[in-house]
Amino acid sequence: MKILVTGGAGFIGGNFCHYLVDKYPDYNIVVLDALTYAGNLETLASIINKNNFRFVKGDITDRKEVFKLFETEKFDIVVNFAAESHVDRSIENPEIFLKTNVIGTQVLMDASKNYKVKRFHQVSTDEVYGDLPLNRPDLLFTETTPLKTSSPYSASKASADLLVNAYYRTFKMPITISRCSNNYGPYQFPEKLIPLMIKNALENKNLPVYGKGENVRDWLHVYDHCTAIDLIIHKGKIGEIYNIGGHNEKTNIDVVKTILKELKKPTSLINYVTDRPGHDLRYAIDASKIENELGWKPKYNFDLGIKQTIKWNIDNQKWLKNIETGEYLRFMEKHYNK
Ligand code: NAD
Ligand code: TYD
Q: How is residue 275 annotated by DSSP?
């Protein structure tokens, strides 16, 4: 079995590569990643020299190079993680989100169609469903919830989903789509809520909480996301969408306070800042389809996962320091000094 993992030098794709190498030593894994600011080869350091692993630096929007790679490698499965993934950056510069997330997905599907890939799996997000009200805890996103996007990021992901579905219907391409809630865990880039708050707390810096910190996210440990994708690409039904959620709904302020408590840091570090424009109120996933049809069950609850994630960040300061390149510092300064 030969699997192409696009975006494998990023947070979730990188974790998925570690997971595949451990679980399927007889599979061949190829990563295609452009190494944008969010991609980091150090994430793959312990597996990059394995015989059954190959890293290719390249852009999913580069049709010629993508087709060349498919011609050489003859992939059985493609799992598309490659994306621009940060909502705040999409508000600053939507264009690259459309290019990578929409056009890039189309190029990969064209190549998959041309070279008769047996499964094209699109890694999507619950953000395509928009948001839920804070005062209706009974409401959850199901796979049939209408798409209703809020940010340029979620609009680009929803566009890609529609395109993937269109290729299924029109060309009978063997596709699956997964839509998951917010991930956390090892190797997450410290611009997203959890790793940023851990990093700032460790450095005794302010923790910028948007608005009142009342927004709710449903936290999914990245390991549980990997087990879900594993099940979908091996046992999922072609043409289907699967929601993946952690059953761990928390307000942002609760998450931040938990991190401060674990690190024994004062709550005076919390700094309420201007809210994100168009900020989605609440995400919550109904994952009963993947649980009932494929037998998926998350291993982590939030209490266990956050402790492990904090420890990973403390133990991997070198990985974190190396991320602080000029581009990272420029974005952080511009965004948080507004
Ligand atoms: P990430 O930003 O950490 O990593 C993205 C990776 O894609 C990076 O390695 C980057 O170099 C690569 N990449 C970007 N543009 C590329 C291009 N044009 N060609 C090739 N590679 C390119 O993202 P992540 O958090 O790991 O998210 C992975 C996927 O999961 C994304 O599709 C995202 O939309 C989806 N998702 C993420 C979350 C989350 O909480 N992080 C939740 C739901 C869905
Ligand atoms: P984020 O990690 O960017 O993921 P997403 O926007 O895809 O859900 O943000 C998670 C939540 O945390 C979201 O409600 C925005 C909030 N947030 C802050 O309050 N402060 C921050 O500095 C960041 C990055 C996010």
A: P
**Are 265 and 201 a contacting pair, CB within 8 Å?**
yes
From the alpha carbon of 213, which atom of ligand 2 is closest? 19
DSSP assignment, residue 282?
B
pLDDT in tens, 46-64: 999 999 999 999 999 999 9
- Structure tokens given for 35: 């190494």
List, in order, residues 6 or more apart from 71 with CB less than 8 Å away.
115
Q: Is 153 an active-site residue?
A: yes
Burial string for 122-144 (b: 16+ CB within 10 Å, else e) reads bbbbbbbbbbbeeeeeeebbebe
> Are β-strands 270-273 and 207-210 bridged in parallel, bridged antiparallel, or unpaired?
parallel
Q: Is 120 helix (H, G, I), strand (E, B) or coil?
A: strand
C-alpha gyration radius of the chain: 19
pLDDT of 283? 98
pTM given for the model? 0.98
Nearest to 73 by CA among 34, 113, 103, 117: 117
* Domains, the chain, ordered by start: 2-337 (3.40.50.720)
Q: Summarize the confidence of residues 158-167 as an average pLDDT.
A: 98
pLDDT above 90: residue 338? no
H or E element: which one contains 85? Answer: none
Report the distance separating Cα 171 and Cα 110, nearest Å: 10
Q: Residue 210 in contact with residue 257, Cβ under 8 Å?
A: no
**For the segment 2-36, what is each residue's pLDDT rounded down to a tens digit?**
999 999 999 999 999 999 999 999 999 999 999 99
* Shortest-distance Cα residue to atom 28 of ligand 1: 81
Which of the following is catalytic: 126, 161, 224, 230? 126
127 an active-site residue?
yes
Any ligand 2 atom below 6 A from CB of 154: no
Cβ-count burial of 203 within 10 angstroms (0-12 exposed, 13-18 middle, 19+ buried)?
exposed
d(CA 133, CA 140): 10
Active site residue 126: yes
